[in-house]
Amino acid sequence: MRQRYTQFSVSPSILMFIPKYFAFLLGFTKINSIFATISVLNNIRMKILHTSDWHLGHTLYNFSREEEHADMLRQMTRIVEEEKPDAFVISGDVYDTMQPSASVQTMLANALVDIHRANHDMKIVCIAGNHDSGSRHTIYRTPWKALGVEMVGNISRDSRLEDYIFKVEGKGYIVAVPFAADRFMPEDVFVRLQEMVAEMNKEEQLPVFLSAHLAVARCDYRGHDMSTDENIGGLGCQELNVFGEGYDYIALGHIHKYQKLDSDGRIYYCGTPIAMSFDEVYRGNRHCVMLVECEAHGAIPQVTPLEINNPRPLVNIPQEGFAEWEEVKREFANYPDNIPSYIRLNVEVENYLTSGANDEASMIASEKDCRFCIINAKRKESAQKEKERQVFTTSEFKQLDTTDVARMWIESKGDTFDDEMKEIIEEVKREIVGS
Hints:
Blueprint: H1 12-26, H2 32-41, E1 46-51, E2 59-60, E3 63-64, H3 66-83, E4 87-91, H4 102-118, E5 123-127, H5 134-139, H6 141-145, E6 149-152, E7 165-168, E8 172-177, H7 189-200, E9 208-213, E10 215-216, E11 231-232, E12 235-238, E13 249-253, E14 259-260, E15 267-269, E16 288-294, E17 302-307, E18 314-317, H8 325-333, E19 341-349, H9 357-365, E20 370-379, H10 383-388, H11 394-398, H12 402-412, H13 419-434
Parallel strand pairs: 1-4, 4-5, 5-6, 8-9, 9-13, 10-12, 13-15, 18-19, 19-20
Antiparallel strand pairs: 1-16, 2-3, 7-8, 11-12, 14-15, 16-17
């Protein structure tokens, strides 16, 4: 005789009471692990998509990238439709400049509407980065709320910090801190916000996510021009301990390389969804959005990068390093005719680039479905010069005189730093100091 089983359901409020009851009986002071178990039983798993650094409106050597950005946004919409996340988090730099054109602003507006339609129940949180205008984010904040979009543009020392905390009912919290110059950023803002959320979250113990746009010390910043270990992309670097303890996942923007920053796997840069420059194209670099799932406050998040395909990729020839002009030209001629792409030729030269090299490259490109951008020429160093090249630590470099720095740079390019050149540098220094 088949045994009958009676199905029953348990109220979420009763489930959330169970850990308290056992804590009272057993004398537990910390019950996060029990909350995590109950949250799994009660299906309180929060899922977000983390993206940043779209740089809409970006041009590459005067070529518009509107077609690629439109395709990228369609891919993101499809991912939202398939994954049905609880929140879509954009950690800054949606625009490439603070003054985007009307067509670029329309592209963003249409994309956010499409992403919302792909999952009506999802909250969208978009913070301003250092390339964005915080005021532009703030102006239309009220109508965007009607579509579940939280545009977070500005923060200052006078801001009400509770306005930067967003709850996804029954799922979790998102703390959203836009970019601000150090003189405007509230003191210990990340720690203070985490403490505020902890007070709100005492009963439910839901996952807590942070979205921020900044440079973290000792991250991998390959692809960022004019950057140092202390300043990346114009932003001074901050230590990981600035975030304090208590965030289950920290969704960062600003650095263009996808990477994990901590051993626990809670702090990530998602990087650019498509490469912004040829220097971002190298073996091992991924362009993606991050799918993040967390079962409860205190649980280790599950992080999955989802690749974004660029219909017109950036291609270096050769793929790595430099080669002599004839070899590069031969490799470019053999590049497939039917692949839409941008091309940079990396050429090593003895003294100067061959006369007419750009015309030759343009002629080869004219028979292909690619866009020739530039010849990136690098002067070949003799073995002796390479051996003599000095390497400085950051502190040592700061001690150097400006004229010495100029001399080393000019000589590294194979030019002579003579008395006339020295006088020009000294004159520029005098004008700067006197201004």
